[in-house]
Amino acid sequence: MNWLRQAATIARRELRGGLSGFRVFLACLALGVAAIAAVGSVRVSITDGLAREGSVILGGDAELQFHYRRASDEERAVLEGLGSVSEILDFRSMAATGDGPDADRALTQVKAVDDLYPLVGRVELSPDIPLSDALADNGIVAHPVLMDRLGMAIGDALYLGTKRFTLRAALTREPDAGGAGFGLGPRTLVSLAALDGSGLVSEGSLFEAQYRIDMGDVSDEVLDATEVQVGTAFADAGARWRDRRNAAPQVERFVDRIGSFLVLVGLAGLAVGGVGVSAAVRSYLERKTGVIATLKTLGAEGRVIFAAYMMQIGVLAVLGIAIGLALGAAIPLAIGPLIKAQLPVPVALGVHLGPLLEAALYGALTALVFTLWPLARTEQVRAASLFRDVSGAVRIWPRKRYIAALTLAVVVLIASSAILSGIPTLALYSAGGIIVALALLIGAAWGVRRLSRALAGTRAVRGHPALRLALGSVGGPGGEATAVVLSLGLGLTVLAAVGQIDANMRAAIDRDLPEIAPSYFFVDIQPDQLPVFLDRVENDPAVSRVDTAPMLGGVVRSIAGKPASEIDHWVTRGDRRISFADTPGEGTRVVEGEFWPEGYTGPPQISFAREEAQELGIKLGDEIVMNVLGRDITGTVTNFREVDFSSGGIGFVIIFNTAALQGAPHTWLSTVYAEESAEAAILRDVAGDAPNITAIRVRDAIALVTEVLGALAAATSWGAGATLLTGFIVLIGAAAAGERSRTFEASVLKTLGATRATILTSFAIRSALLGAAAGTVAIIGGALAGWGILTFVMEAPFTFEWRSALAIVLGGSLATLLAGLAFAWRPLAARPAGVLRAQD
């Protein structure tokens, strides 16, 4: 292994020269690793916080949840045998400042609690009084947002349903808020006993009954055994079990998904950085042409030279990765207070080894992938060729073993991202997209060079020396076209894709809301209240359309014999609103199978939404078991319907025949399409006639969705911004690396009589052309990526957004122009005589 010692000696001596030429290398690698490490650290911090504070988030060690009914005395006795039990009812209602026509109303999420609430944690109020005192004698606690909406102060009266409550305090902290899931209205707390006489909770009403259990200091093994015990005891009850280990599954699922997506965005940034790494290594090796030639002349083997420079790159890669890991660990700690303020769950901030190792793996593989090619090519070049090659460019392909090693490294990198991200399909598509984008950018750079070379010799550019010089430089050998187009183009492609997705989602909301969305969803309409309700809304000239449907809740138990707990789909998670019908109804389109005949009274049949059926693998004839109010009902799927949930109207995944649910307590759901000016009067009159009816204003719901989309877009834009920043660093590195050649070029042009203005204009045109090329390819790549994600992932229509595209082209041109001009002053100031003498 003498050759390895020789390589190590050469590498050690070369490294004594410092980091000159590798600043871009280190910056690109460190930024990419830092972005991935920071995102991973935040994700693990939230996950660890959920695990550590699971009992507080859940409100107990375990919870059994019933949908639309309370536990029976026998069921309650089973739970009380496990520990202390606290009962909670959770539902939506309208809160009003009075009971007359002039009352102000707002939607609220009501939590009715017993005397034991909370079993774990502490409710914080303003003023700081015990919760029991605040809820005594029909007291109520409200979130400050609700108080602001209704203009309320402590001591004011607040109506829920038909009952008057007194506002005693503002709710400043709800310990179990993180496990509550998505709510459309601010929270209010009332006493469970105070619901009597309010008319809010009755048979068929939409509410959840939660039974929190404090089991003391029990192990996970005891929780496992208890889950099995409860599952057996409540096998036919349609109840859902949760314990402290999965206290906030929706939050955890969301954090995992957005975190994984941002890691993929970070990998795109690392790919951009890889372009800079490759360019830095190539530029460094070109400057070392004389050294490599000398070593070969003195008898050094090709493998010795390869190993020597691979060791140098390896040491520098370790340094860059270490810097990135330090930044990735420090950034979450620095912005910790901001993260905690934005999340309703505890965050266990700290240094987490897992995401740091993942980021280090990605960094090492990226460094290997992008440095192996330029390093391997030096082994095959003879010393005489190196001495003669003025540009230092090496055109010989590496040996097959290096190509095989490079291919293996790419496969390992892609496989690692697919496995570690948790979303393998999206990871593979992303990797494919990055590879395609790189290929397109390389092709674009080649095309720009060929086109520039062709245009430089045409008559059209004669008499325009600056333009002709710029075209000749771009199309000439040893130019910077490939490095600039690659470095800037990939970053702009990611930004363009994010811009197209964000613009399309916002445009879809703005476009669809006034055309097809209803004004209100009215829920919890009791059957005896329906005639009065319809009389009010159907006879209003400002109302254009009213749709109604019976509604009750159920839980999917099994599909085609497979337990729902083993099927990961939104239809099988939590409760599901279902309906029943005797006929398909106006506007219903049956696309497969046959709807049951009117008046059908045979075995239960089910009409299922086609798209969801395809996702779940349901076929005609499959049996679905649903638990409805504690009773299992087995129905056969006899037809599929086309259901457009994006319309904002009434849409059910599951509809039974009427006889299957005959006699089951239910309420009615209605959507009302009205002019915006009439919405307040409709709400006032409906609430005055029936205070228990809950109105959900669709515009408010969409505003919440828009806010969430805005947060997602902001997070993704930050990731894309990091990618773009890396691209700018690579761009600056490419401009700096070409400074020597531009100095020589400027000296020759000055000697031939060119003015400084002509040379500077030539440099500016060259930079603008390359930036425009990168921006144009980014528009194409970003539009394709945006179309693919919107069409196949989000299943939304795509429209090309030209404003964002124009900004991308102008931004790319401006960035390359500024970078080019920043490194043009020294070449312009250089004295031709000194520069040309140095070339002898």
From TrEMBL:
Name the major location: membrane
Does the record's keyword annotation contain Zinc-finger? no
Lineage of source species = Bacteria, Pseudomonadati, Pseudomonadota, Alphaproteobacteria, Rhodobacterales
Q: Which UniProt keywords apply?
A: Cell membrane, Membrane, Transmembrane, Transmembrane helix
Membrane-crossing residue ranges in chain numbering: 21-42, 261-285, 306-339, 359-376, 402-420, 426-448, 768-793, 805-825
- Residue limits of the ABC3 transporter permease C-terminal domain? 265-377, 722-827
Q: Name one GO cellular component term.
A: plasma membrane
Localization of this protein: Cell membrane
Question: What protein name does the entry list?
Answer: Putative ABC transport system permease protein
